[in-house]
Amino acid sequence: MQKSILVSVSLIGSFLFVLSIHGREKDEKKAGTYRVQAGDSWYSTARKFNLDPKTLASWNGRTVSDALYVDETIRVKSLGPSSEELKEKKPPGKPNFPLSQRESIKHPFSDTSHIPHKGVEFTKLNPGYVRSTLPGKVINIDYMDGYDNFVILEHQNGWYSVYGNLERVYVNEGQNVEAKQRLGSISKNKGLYFQVNQNKSAVNPIQFFQIGSS
Fold first, then answer.
1. Are 155 and 136 in contact (CB under 8 A)?
2. Are 171 and 130 in contact (CB under 8 A)?
3. Which among 169, 174, 97 has a CA at the least distance from the CA of 136?
């Protein structure tokens, strides 16, 4: 039970100077940060890290029209695992859509530092059931304000999936489930909240589906 509680908090609730200059730069690179130098702009900095300037600015809660300041530290790396890292830890099989019918996304995944949203929330256009995207084990069932009832599944290769905004839950903690097995029904006037983690790192569910299909 303690493990389940810790996992649920990590998956849903969490929104992750050395003396020499050489050592400082090494630590910053490892942490995915960069200390702004004189003459830097969003565009020139983005080129250094092979990034889109708008993406770089959004990771830091700003736009490309906002100023950069000398000696400030900005984020130059996504908080989650890279595409290369994810490919090495592919989901165990092709993930299934967690709803019986495709729904559009009402609230997308966000990896920005100022407005984090670690999953996606689908619109609710059709009645139906929430189903497991992959075979797995139910490790936690609980209630949280803003998410209603939620279910967390553990899958192979360090993958976890979270299903929130549930009115009713049809499974039990410790239960092994098959792919496409019904987990519950969606709360009235809400869309499914769906989150995917590779261990402790939240992954864009759209990227998750693409990696699992490749």
1. yes
2. no
3. 174
Per DSSP, 42 falls in state H
Sequence-ordered alpha helix ranges (H) in the chain: 2-8, 21-31, 42-48, 53-59, 83-88, 205-213
- The CATH architecture assigned to 86-213 reads Distorted Sandwich (2.70)
Amino acid in the structure at residue 213: S
Predicted TM-score (pTM) of this structure: 0.69
Q: Where are the domains of the chain?
A: 17-75, 86-213
pLDDT in tens, 14-49: 322 222 223 334 444 445 889 999 999 999 999 998
Residue 2 neighbours by CB distance under 10 Å: 6
| Structure-token match 């890279």, residue found | 82
Mean pLDDT of 182-199: 92
Q: In whole angstroms, what separates CA 164 from the centre of its chain?
A: 14
The domain 17-75 belongs to what CATH superfamily?
A: LysM domain (3.10.350.10)
DSSP-assigned letter for residue 117: B
**What is the tens place of the pLDDT at every residue in 130-144?**
999 999 999 999 999
Domains 17-75 and 86-213 share a fold: no
In terms of Cβ atoms closer than 10 Å to its own Cβ (0-12, 13-18, 19+), residue 162 is buried
